Structures are given as C-alpha cells and as structure tokens.
Amino acid sequence: VPNPESNARFHTDWLNMIYPRLKVARDFLSPDGVIFISIDDNEQANLRKICDEIFGSGNFVAELVWDLGTGTTAGHFARGHEYILVYARDKSRLPNFDNPEENETIVHGALKKISYKNPASEITFPAGFEFEGDNAVFTGELGDAEKVYILSDEMRVEHGRLVAPTTLQAGFAMRNQILSYIAGRKVYDTKGQRVRRFFFNSRGILFYEKDKSIVNPKTVLSGIANTRNGTNEIEELLGAKCFSFPKPSTLIQYLLQLATKPDSIVLDFFSGSATTAHAVMALNAADGGRRKFILVQLPEVTGEKSEARKAGYETICDIGEERIRRAGRKLREESPLTTKDLDVGFRVFRVDSSNIKEEIYKRPDEYIQGQLEIFDENIKPDRTPEDLLIQVMLGLGMELSTKIEEDFVAGKHVFIVKDGYLIACFDERINKQTITYMAKRQPAYVAFRDSCFESDAMMINADQLIKAYSPKTRWEII
Question: Helix 249-259 crosses helix 227-238 at what angle (to 10 degrees)?
C-alpha cells in the first residue's frame, strides 16, 4: 500500500516544479502563440486546473488524446493513450491551423433546410451561371430536405450554362457570399478561405467549391507513431538506447505543422533528448521553412551503469547535443534542399553569471592614464573570447542566433557579427594592421578587451584609426 504522506509530498513537489515554469512559458508566448503540454493520467486533471489558472480557462483550446497504438497492461485496463493539453496565450488571436496540403479544395452544398433561424430568401442568378452538366430544364420544386423553389417560369440550361436569369427561393447558407460572387467580387468564407466558385450540380442544386486552406484536426491523434518509435529513433541515431520513452519526432512535427509559420520560434523547456529540435529541422527540410528552436534542459547526470553513460554521455544535455548534430547531418543527406537552404546549425549556452566581476563598459575618452591594468582583473580567468563576444552581443540587444564569422588578421582572432554590424577582437597586444582592418569594414560597433592594448598610446592610436576610417563607429572596451 503506498505511503499517503509520500504521495502527498510527490504531488506537492510536482506542483511546485511545474507551476513557475508554466507562468514563465506564458510570458514567452507570442500574442497568437500556443503551447502543447504532454501529460499522462496521473496528473492530467491537476495540470488542467493549473493551466486554467495561468492561461485562463477561456484560452483552453483542446485536450488531445494521443493513441499510442499499444498499451501498458498494469491495472484493470491497458493504458493505450496519453494527453496533450493545448492552451493559447490569447485564443481570440489564435488563427485556424493552416492546411499543409497545397491546392486542396472542398465541394459542399450551399443550402440549408429552411427554418426560423435560416429563413427562405430569393436570389436571381444571371444568364451564363455555371451548371454541372450539358442541357436540362427544371420547374417548380427541387431538392429533398433543403428545398429550392423556382420562382421563374423555368430554369433552363444549355451547354452547361443558364440560358436566362432565374430567380430561386431557398435557405441559402451563404447568401452574402453568393451575391458578392454574382457581382464579380472575390469571396471568402467566415474562416478566411477563398471560395473559388458557386455552381449548380446536375440536379439543379447550388454548390460551392472553396480552398481548404485551414484544417480542423481531430482531437484523437491516431497513427502518429508511439513511444517505441521514439526509442528506435534514438537508437538509430546514437547507436544505443540512451533515453527512456522519448517522444517520436513525427508527433512533434505534426503539432508544429499545425501551429507554426515558416519563420516561427519554437521553445521547449523540457527538451530531454532534443526531439523538438529534430522535429523543427525535419519540418524545415520538408517545407523549406526557417523555423528556429530554443531548448532548455537541466544538466541531469546519466546513471553510472546506464546505456547512455556507456556510450559516453555524462548528462542528458550531452545526449541532446549529439542527437541534433547527427539528425542534422542525416537530414542534409536526405533533403532535396541544398546545404545553404537547410540550416541545421545550433549553439549551446549554459546559464552563468557575468563574465566580469564588476561590469564595466567605457568609451576610450573615459579612461585615464594608469587605469588599464585595473580592468583586466575584472574578467574572470576561465572566460573565453567567445564568452566575451556573447556578452557584448547581449548588451547590444542582438539575438544569440545572430550570424558570427571569424577571421585571422595579422595573427589576431577577429569576430565579425551580423555581416559586420559588430566586429570584435579580444587577443592581447593587438596591432595596427588588425585595427585598420576592423575600421575599414566600417562597423556600427567595435569591441576590444582592455588587455588588447599595451599602453595608453596604443589605445589612443586605435581611436584615431577608427575615427579616420569609420567616424560613426562606436567602440567598447571590456
């Protein structure tokens, strides 16, 4: 019999862990953003209550049931499903999901049964209106439940077109759209889908054809892989069963296909084995998108006797990083897109304190004689030039995914960021050739480390060179 106190403690710990993370997730969501949260039977009800409080019950979108295709036989039933809760930041701004199939159309009747809520009305259809058939003549009454009354003497069709204007009375479901179409205007349904045409079918009943530009997926996800598929995916990529019960990338890719645009940013703050990164890259390879991913994972240590540790992965983060590398290589080999078109690059960061013991950013004219040796002591000794570059980028409000190029000029390591918007060098004893190269690129910003300069005179010389070649450039010393 389970210890009730232990159960209560576990429940409290779980709530304390998930609640603040979901609050942060809500703040990160774009105004038209949506979040998918996977959960099993044990905490589904509690998670629903938490999400109602954080996102608001009015922003609940759906509770998806993922059919696993198999079942765990413990207990009275074989549990063959998991849940995926879907919430929006603002449901009123969440658009309908785009249809991934291009040029797909829907043909449907344009009539409803005449009733109090849908009263009969009259529309006169002009000569030449389209008819599916060759020649026909109709009079009186047409249809079954959705009745049509021909108010003109007859409805005559020759060679697939109405011969003369014909007035019909019916419960027109799309009256305003029909009138707009007759007037020659572009027509859209209430979901924003383009109506290509209205026409009479061979029995004289009005139909319409529209673009199926949105989809309303079922809440039961069947035939979209299972946890075994996710395990096989990991084993195939990494050569070992390094992670237990990972989600299959095909499931995540399906959800991304529904809810993202080609330039969306996807955040997964329980990234595990990096399934989301794999799915984002795979979807980009399939539709040519430029989606970006941000993954967050604690550096949880793998078990000493686990398959992951035997394969050389000390933390879950190590597993995720290697999976992204290998999945990216495989996608590039298999994708019809060129290497240039398919971006599978990524950067890895860890949460840390500032590189500098006491943050100091000064312009050259703010320094005084004998001050240089003070600042070098403020940079922590274990920090690399890349660490310093990232701090400068963040200080300028630049994204971590910004393009970074590297060059070696007169023996010094130079970083070129955002096609030359920022140019930085943190090597010691920088020389005139390197500074001149940086200035001639005319960047908006240049950045140096104070130890780049052997003396005040060298720093003043650098200032003069930059002003001569690029007077609008601002520069920073850290």
Answer: 110
